[in-house]
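G., the chain you wanted modeled:
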Amino acid sequence: MKKSVLFGFLFLLVLTIGFVNATIIISLGSSKAGEISGYACDDTNLENQIEVTIIFHKSESIQFYQLVRANLPSGEATPCGSLGHNFSFNLYSNTTLLNEVFDNFPIDYIDVCLGQSCSSPKDLDFSCSNTNQTIMNLYGPKNAHVYMWNSSLPDLYPICYDNLFGYEFEGDYHPSSCNAPNTPVIWKSQLNNAHVSTKTLSGDYPREVCYGDLQCVYKNTNCLADEKTIARMYYYNNSHVSYFNDNNYTIRICCKSNFKPNPIKQADWKNLDDNLINTANLRDFVKLSLVGIDLKDKLINYTIYNSKGENVFFAQETAESDNPSIMWKAEPSDNYTFNAMIADNSLLNKNSGLLNVSNSIGIEDFGIELIKPKCAENFTVGNPVEFVIRVNTTNQLVNLNLDFGDGSFINFSNTGNNIISLNHTYSLDGTKNIILNATNYGKTVFKRKMINIILINESKSGAYVAACIDSPKDMGYIDSQKVLCNASSTRALNYISIGKIYQVINISTLHFNWTFSDNSFHHFVGVFNADCGGYDTRHDYINPSGIFYNHTIDCQSETKGYSFTKYFIYAGQNKASLVVSL
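Predicted structure as tokens:
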């Protein structure tokens, strides 16, 4: 379907680590092939074996480490910077790595070091991101007594929620007792320097270790896919404890957590330069900016509240990155906060700090026009297309960015001339979405113009459609509650290369798909009615609450999918987008 849019464990890792005069490059080829291979080089003589410590990571946390010996083809020195000595090591020859790393702890990346300088777990960073993430402490990595999460004894070995699950727990970190359905991680004989048991025995193990929402069981087999090996025990009762990677301790403490982290970590006001702000002049353009984890492609609701707690702005946007932002024109003068919320889970949200919008108007406003080309004009591949831009200002310096819609763009300004003309030649046919962005020198005012044009390859037949929104003119900032939506300049062509024939496709037969910032959606399409010689218009509608409606308007001279009146719930800075297809 042709359409035009207009709108407001298999991996390879190569790592170089330098230690003194030695360099190693390690590559991991497949999670199940299990072979680590690479090369080593040194400015001195190498032995026939090289010792390499491999550190396995998941979500920035160390999951496992292993000292391996890789056979080298010779003991001859190879200078660093050349290919070096090839070597390989089969992970499947080591059952510890097989069971712990690839089955229970899928890894994101690996670090390596030469020799045994980082083979001791104490030399590795097993620390928690903060003490709230500490489930309990061990006196050592193996065969150890257990200590409280907040023990003041130095040099303990913590067991961390964030290292195990890959993200920080938020909530009641260390409850005084485990409330159902949560269960103890383990029972201790005393607060610190304790032996442990899988259950309390006649009061001998009265101290239960509770953390967050953990639900734990004890097994001498692998933990399930939704469980993590918190630690290991030698006996079910009166036992010492080891880290999860001690195969000599066969009883696993397997715990699962239902907690899901809030992917929105931070909500900030920023200027167009991406600097944090807490004040703005009246009518400045500011950003509602988020810092998140895995936010990309999630639907996010942005709501701005004034000092009275009234909702003055709402927008729903799909995040284009993990750190998305939207823009807002700061008016009227007041104090504002905003809330960002995952659209399908109201519990996952974050509030911003305060933004004070003053009565002072900053740098004067300006306007931009894209005089040429006109929306829906058609051009031929290989011939230059003229672009003419007008900047409407008295003496402001305006920075512009023109995206040609083919992956190329140009940055320029209105220095010395408020009418700028330039040419661009396209090499491929299709509909090109042209976007002109402009900001003033202080980056407090933002303007955007968008059009679609058609590029035709005269040696190739094809159908093309270019969506055009005639009204509202500034579809990214619709101030009124009632607005006429008009897309009558939208144009579709059928091009036949034999004879170079251009056939205009009747606009009434196109699919018009309007999406608005209040989360409503309108779809229109006309179907020819031979009985009356006109068009029956089908209208499908989803209101802001997600309720679906549809109806048919019988026998019109032309479909009204490109012209209708839209009512918003709130006035001010609403948005519209349009997708048109054949």
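Residues 95-104 form the longest helix (10 residues).

Shout if anything looks off.
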